[in-house]
Amino acid sequence: MEKANVVIIGGGISGLMAATRLIQTRPELKVVLLEKGFDIDTRTCPIVTGKVPTCIRCNSCGIMEGLAGAGAYSDGKYVISTEYGGWLTDFMEKPEVMKYIEQADAILVENGATTERFNPSNELKTLCLQHDLHMQQAQLKHLGTDANFSTMKNMVDALRGKVDIRTRSTVTDVDGDHKIVTYIHNKEEIKLEADVVIFAVGRAGSNFFSKWCQRHGIKLSNNQVDIGVRVELPYEVWKHFSSVIYEPKIWFRSKKYGDVTRMFCFNERGQVVMENTNDILTVNGHAYKDEAKKSPNSNFALLSTIKFTTPFNEPIDYARHVARLGNLISGGSVLVQRFGDLIVGRRTDEKRLSSSTVVPTLKAVPGDLSLCMPKRQLDNIIETLYALDEIAPGTANHDTLLYGVECKYYSARPECVDFELTKYPGCYAIGDGAGFTRSLSQAAANGLYVADLLLKKDDFTK
Ligand SMILES: Cc1cc2nc3c(=O)[nH]c(=O)nc-3n(C[C@H](O)[C@H](O)[C@H](O)COP(=O)(O)OP(=O)(O)OC[C@H]3O[C@@H](n4cnc5c(N)ncnc54)[C@H](O)[C@@H]3O)c2cc1C
Fold first, then answer.
1. What pLDDT, in 10s, does the model give residues 136-164?
2. What values do phi and psi take at 305, rounded to 5?
3. pLDDT reported for residue 223
4. Superfamily of domain 2-118+139-221+413-456 in the CATH hierarchy
5. pLDDT tens digit string along 269-305?
6. What residues are in contact with ligand 1 under a 6 Å CB criterion?
7. Under a CB-based contact definition with an 8 Å cutoff, are residues 75 and 230 in contact?
């Protein structure tokens, strides 16, 4: 059987960073990177290229899968802070996390990323506080979808010939005791033995990974789930924030339920996009750096956080269920509704949408979000939109567009010590797919950290 020193499952930023560090430090290592999607040069989304108006559920979603992972077509907002973006500080000291975030940033800069940083603003934070809104403060870089893609491409290209990269290779099982990885390539089942296996499967692989853990008796602990909408409005409404800090990340505790609803993933003059995760369509957003590709609208996620208590412990299934309902009533797409229509309790139809002063950047089906979103989350979203309207008047305008459903489900965390699975020494899990991170910067930092852990051990290659 073919043998490798390290097999990395998943070619997103966490896997790429781990591979980069391993091969730069020990070029003699045989590192194999298995990625179920396409190579970065050939991955594509027919909606993005304008071939189809709506998601046709490709076998491999070009937005979520392929070399460079979910980050490839992302907006490239790079958070230089531990304030948000994941939970690495549950495992490492803050300065250690920051050290790795900075190291990952340096690698991105080597590959073409900007050095420009947005700094937090105390004046804007104060304005938020005056209205019971809470803004998280962080240094931030904004690469933009186009520059982010070329940076990621340079990073992948730098690994070619040094790391054995195998695309269209879907891992179906791992024998944790013997580190034998089974994957399918061109319908053929192939086995590969390794000294070390790193699961870096991202959100697209979280289903596979949690099922694998359950099958092998690895204890999982669930994180929260966030459900809500993508808000789209004229960019002028939030310009006083976005021109200073680029991304306002603001949370609000609703009076009605005491739940937290968060505004984040802000895209100035961007586009709303659809994403397909394991056959469920949800929404997201991005923005180009190129002036010619900018829209007149900004968009952001507005999601209400739910933490379930016993006996229910399937938050991901819950979110998928809600999103699936949105897909069902939109005839296999996602919904869009004007805020004003939602408030008066009527559907947005084609006619009402065509009279909207905010022109949608995504072709979604006009409809009624109250038919698929649970009341509690919808109430939270409405209350938060009115609260945000206090600091950015116009947010709760009649024609503000709400797309649904957007959800961020964070994968269940496996039982581990220093990211090494307790049950299977030599098997590591990193990034979004293992519920440790939820951003480019922390996923990247996680990859570098685990690579360093291995490099510190003299004996990890047998
Ligand atoms: C549209 C969009 C915009 C975003 N914008 C931002 C942003 O601006 N800033 C930010 O910080 N974060 C952003 N994010 C989140 C960010 O992309 C993720 O946090 C980050 O990509 C996580 O990295 P990862 O390596 O853990 O996983 P991923 O990037 O998801 O990579 C995992 C890879 O593993 C592969 N894989 C899964 N299962 C298997 C298997 N069984 N076999 C082989 N391969 C497998 C997948 O195909 C995928 O390529 C965005 C996400 C999306 C979808």
1. 988 999 888 889 999 999 999 999 999 99
2. -90, 135
3. 62
4. FAD/NAD(P)-binding domain (3.50.50.60)
5. 999 999 888 789 999 998 888 899 999 999 999 999 9
6. 9-15, 34-37, 63-66, 69-71, 73-77, 79, 85, 170-171, 200-205, 208, 273, 275, 284, 286, 431-433, 438-441, 443
7. no
